[in-house]
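Q: Structure tokens for this one, please.
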Amino acid sequence: MLRILGKPTSINVRKVLWLCEELALPHALEPWGAGYRDTNVPEFHALNPNAMVPVIIDGDAVLWESNTICRYLAGKAGREDLLPREPLARARVEQWMDWQGGDFNNAWRYAYMHLVRRSPAHQDPAAVAASAASWNRHVAIVDDQLARTGAFVAGPAFTLADIVIGLSVNRWYETPMERPELPRVRAYYDRLAERAPFRLHGRNGMP
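A: Here is the predicted structure, written as tokens:
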């Protein structure tokens, strides 16, 4: 059985949990991270030198980085609907995954840490406002992309890109902040909620 080391509140762990449900893949979540077992110990560093979750253990294989884990699991399962084999189709999925892991995450981090986590290190009002504005701008990019595809982020069908982007969109809706009305993103969010795995690990009231 696949072992997932992490905490159920982590957006990156939830990517892997959601995908496991899509794949009907037996798995066990082992609690590591803030509020659970401390990742800053030699035992965990031996698995991930960054001391961050998630980490998966699949037999003798150990992997970290949530988007890489998702690619691995979809590829191992032969799910070309989620991660196409054809190079251009695959690149279109992966570009949105990489964008989510970099630009999109960096946009919302400061505002989220202030508004939801109440972090003492994230109390600069100007930085909060700048982060919230950047977050809204990045979600507007998703809205524009959905205007082109008509349904999902990388095209007309659900892919891994929607797992990673969908959780970031969920966080945007669940964070108490001012946000523009983006009708295509709202329809997309509702479309994802038709999937039971997203309701379980995404749109479940948790930011």
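A few notes: The longest strand covers residues 2-6. The helical segments are 11-23, 42-45, 66-76, 87-115, 125-149, 160-174, 183-192, 196-201.
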